[in-house]
Amino acid sequence: MDATVLTAALREWFAPWVQALGLRVESCEDGAVTLRLPRDPALCRIGGMVCGQALMAAADTAMVLAVVTRLGNRQPMSTVQLNTSFLKPLVNQDALVTARVIRAGKSLVFGEIDITAAQDGKSVCRASTTYALQ
């Protein structure tokens, strides 16, 4: 699994509104993916802060791709749980969304996601996830 395959997956597997986020694959390895969420005024609220909904969608998307790198192929899955903690606002910067598989079983996959500001490297959001494999 490489960045080219995951970039194609972003175009082919996800809903148009997720594609509209403009996510780009920065890096990938077995069980881990980093996506870039470009700063876009359409995703911001007052003061240039990126809205939490965009960050959560980027986190969920990154985790799906991280699961695919672990499994080695596309497999139907659904988000069972996405627990998000917003640590500080992301203002006027791209976000780097790093998702890691913690444990992949036969029917459930557990993961964690760290979203950092691309310019200053500060963590702005942490999430834990559980996915059910179909």
UniProtKB/TrEMBL annotation:
Which Pfam families does the record associate with it? 4HBT (PF03061)
Q: Does the keyword Hydrolase apply?
A: yes
Q: Which UniProt keywords apply?
A: Hydrolase
Q: Identify its protein family.
A: Belongs to the thioesterase PaaI family.
**InterPro entries noted in UniProt:** ACOT13, HotDog_dom_sf, PAAI_dom, Thioestr_dom
Ranges for domain Thioesterase = 48-122
The record lists the membrane-crossing segments as none
Record-given protein name = Phenylacetic acid degradation protein
GO MF term set: fatty acyl-CoA hydrolase activity
Q: Which organism is it from?
A: Hydrogenophaga crassostreae
